[in-house]
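User: Can you recover a sequence for this backbone? Please restate the input before giving your answer.

Assistant: Of course. Working from this structure:
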């Protein structure tokens, strides 16, 4: 059955995207509420009525032994990275380099919210568990897409202002009949896998602080592991283990020291505190959040966590005496039984660029120099691809996989980067630096294919200018980068922006060299899946979903997903039929803040879970597009007023609404505000009238004159552009 679906979104010109203030943007951000463009729908009722047979006799019965042997169940995707080693490789091969040309849509599901979709689905015995924006959980019959139940944890709308990078969620964990969610407002929630009914929930954070959870929980031997985010806004990072049965806290591992006057929690914290020198980092939290990646080696019984950036970014404020500032930007190995420290490897000592090491980690056994090494691989934001001995943390090799200029190389003897002082020191002068805080590679998962021996990852070359923010202390900014970028004209920014590029990269981790790559038209592309069918799957910022041959990188199949893809695909099978699933929903840090460059993305349609199979429907693309009529905005402000508004906008608004008022397609582009919205501008910005949609009140940060100045700057920017308004288009969508 085919019927026409209608979608409404605004379209704006891509001209002048090279007027790219995005390079300048990430500097000094502040609390920013990311208002949702879609109305908040009514809660979805739990419906397990007619679909119970899809669930099977003992639903979601993932046990410790089954989790450890997850590789032996290619029909399922039991764990976040399919297996504890996080390879994101599937042995399924019915969809392969010969048959993939016949791939088409099997079923899809429109998510309740159209904001960023980043989740990895979990598939257990024919049932799929997946999350969407605002921490919504969905359970589907994985064969036909029937919704079994959904659950909305009712995250308060203005909690959006506590997040740097959108109200996203990267998935659930499943264990012994329960589904586990980390909600955006910091709760760990256990649900009945059969019905979605909440069994227990517990708060994992200090609700007074800007903590969030966007990462997927992991479960080892009945212990639910969860970290958090917030290092852009000023928190102290840690990871916690909870009892999967009752939600009791079992242990907590702090990644950075707290206030020395309060006393340190344990010897490890006391020891890392000696690497922080001068300053009062605890007032800003210190950072080091564990907001995404973990991996586990059952033989070594080691849990690996990826640790994030400093709060503030600026080490000259955070730790003015220097020091390594452990465990910022580190991979830390922990005994999961009691949360005790085993070893660490720090990728970026003294981190000051938002160079997190939270990026995806893959465990594999590699033949290096005639010897089998048990390795851990990571391509963190800082641009080097690391291969470590996962038993000891010893560095085996590290080479740049993108343009890097903050360090010349990594010294193999010491395991430390050799900084380029002309770039790495921005204490007195701003420095153009590769990579940007967006990272040479961000959270979007990689894949290791043991058949080709290659790691496949989305990469991006984006430079950024870092400089000290002299107004940091006075403004008491809540987002504590402490970094400010020098003023640049549009022309200057356009010149720098031509340096931006992005790739799907196939990397040989043994030789530390590129095997092949595919150029992408815009940064911030999706995670990667590889399969025994000699295939690599990836979605793009521009809304394509493609398959390449894993050995050579030849494009074999592509479909227009109608929406930018950031999530990683997975594959599974039901009754012997193989499926490929991916969430299509543009979002995340770059999508919100990226401004003119993010405008390249395909970001203006509905969020969907797309599931493909051989012989599925080939033509399914979107949808009716209805474009906003541009309403002239009041623009009688004087230069001083616009300048003041510009400064305030970039302090408070750009983090969600985009650098230089160019929206990335996730939340409303303010240049297109309706007359009604403009009339209610103060009520929204100060009165919080759109709080429920995620636009918090800024009354404690901006006064009425400030709000009016921001409005003037937005109007000024709106007047600088000529907008293209396209006619509506229509096409058909299949119904499941
Ligand atoms: Ca960060």
């Amino acid at each position: 059955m085919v019927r026409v679906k209608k979608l409404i979104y605004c379209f704006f010109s891509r001209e002048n995207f090279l007027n790219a203030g995005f390079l300048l943007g990430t500097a000094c951000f502040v609390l920013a509420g990311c208002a949702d463009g879609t109305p908040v729908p009514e809660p979805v009722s739990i419906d397990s009525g007619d679909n119970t047979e899809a669930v099977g006799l003992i639903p979601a019965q993932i046990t410790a032994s089954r989790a450890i042997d997850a590789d032996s169940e290619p029909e399922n995707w039991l764990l976040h990275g399919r297996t504890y080693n996080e390879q994101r490789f599937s042995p399924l091969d019915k969809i392969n380099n010969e048959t993939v040309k016949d791939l088409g849509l099997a079923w899809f599901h429109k998510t309740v919210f159209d904001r960023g979709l980043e989740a990895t689905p979990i598939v257990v015995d024919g049932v799929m568990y997946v999350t969407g924006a605002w921490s919504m959980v969905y359970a589907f019959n994985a064969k036909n897409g029937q919704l079994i139940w959904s659950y909305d944890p009712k995250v308060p709308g203005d909690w959006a202002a506590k997040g740097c990078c959108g109200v996203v969620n990267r998935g659930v964990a499943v264990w012994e009949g329960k589904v586990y969610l980390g909600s955006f407002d910091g709760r760990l929630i256990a649900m009945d896998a059969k019905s979605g009914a909440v069994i227990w929930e517990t708060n994992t954070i200090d609700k007074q602080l800007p903590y969030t959870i966007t990462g997927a929980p992991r479960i080892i031997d009945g212990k639910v592991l969860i970290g958090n985010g917030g290092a852009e806004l000023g928190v102290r990072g840690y990871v916690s283990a909870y009892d999967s049965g009752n939600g009791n806290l079992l242990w907590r591992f702090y990644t950075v020291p707290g206030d020395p006057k309060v006393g340190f929690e344990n010897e490890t914290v006391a020891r890392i505190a000696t690497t922080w020198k001068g300053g009062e980092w605890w007032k800003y939290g210190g950072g080091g959040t564990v907001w995404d990646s973990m991996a586990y080696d059952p033989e070594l019984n080691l849990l690996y966590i990826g640790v994030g950036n400093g709060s503030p970014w600026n080490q000259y404020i955070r730790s003015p005496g220097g020091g390594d500032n452990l465990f910022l930007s580190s991979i830390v190995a922990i005994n999961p039984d009691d949360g005790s420290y085993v070893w660490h490897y720090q990728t970026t000592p003294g981190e000051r660029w938002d160079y997190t090491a939270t990026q995806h980690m893959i465990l594999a056994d590699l033949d290096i120099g005639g010897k089998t090494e048990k390795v851990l691989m990571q391509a963190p934001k800082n641009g080097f691809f690391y291969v470590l001995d996962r038993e000891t943390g010893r560095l085996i090799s590290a080479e740049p996989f993108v343009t890097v200029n903050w360090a010349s190389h990594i010294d193999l003897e010491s395991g430390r980067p050799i900084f380029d002082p002309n770039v790495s020191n921005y204490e007195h002068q701003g420095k153009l630096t590769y990579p940007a805080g967006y990272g040479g590679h961000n959270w979007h998962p990689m894949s290791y294919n043991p058949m080709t021996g290659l790691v496949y990852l989305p990469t991006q070359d984006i430079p950024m200018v870092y400089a000290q923010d002299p107004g940091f202390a006075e403004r008491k900014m809540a987002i504590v980068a402490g970094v400010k970028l020098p003023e640049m004209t549009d022309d200057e920014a356009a010149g720098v922006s031509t340096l931006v590029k992005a790739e799907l990269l196939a990397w040989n981790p043994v030789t530390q060299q590129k095997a092949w790559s595919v150029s992408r038209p815009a940064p911030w592309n999706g995670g990667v899946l590889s399969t025994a069918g000699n295939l690599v799957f990836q979605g793009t910022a521009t809304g394509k979903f493609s398959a390449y041959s894993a050995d050579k990188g030849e494009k074999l199949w592509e479909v227009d997903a109608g929406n930018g893809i950031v999530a990683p695909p997975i594959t599974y099978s039901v009754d012997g039929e193989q499926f490929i699933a991916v969430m299509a929903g543009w979002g995340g840090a770059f999508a919100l803040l990226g401004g003119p460059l993010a405008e390249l993305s395909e970001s203006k349609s509905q969020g969907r879970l797309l599931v493909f199979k051989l012989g599925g429907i080939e033509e399914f693309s979107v949808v009716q597009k209805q474009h906003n009529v541009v309403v002239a905005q009041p623009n009688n402000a004087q230069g001083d007023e616009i300048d003041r508004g510009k400064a305030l906008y970039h302090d408070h608004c750009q983090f969600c609404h985009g650098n230089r008022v160019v929206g990335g397609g996730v939340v409303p582009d303010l240049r297109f505000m309706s007359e009604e919205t403009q009339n209610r501008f103060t009520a929204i910005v100060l009165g919080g009238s759109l709080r429920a949609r995620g636009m918090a009140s800024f009354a404690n940060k901006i006064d009425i004159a400030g709000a009016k100045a921001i409005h003037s700057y937005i109007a000024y920017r709106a007047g600088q552009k000529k907008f293209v308004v396209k006619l509506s288009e229509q096409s058909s969508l299949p119904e499941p």
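That completes the design. The chain has one domain: 12-620.
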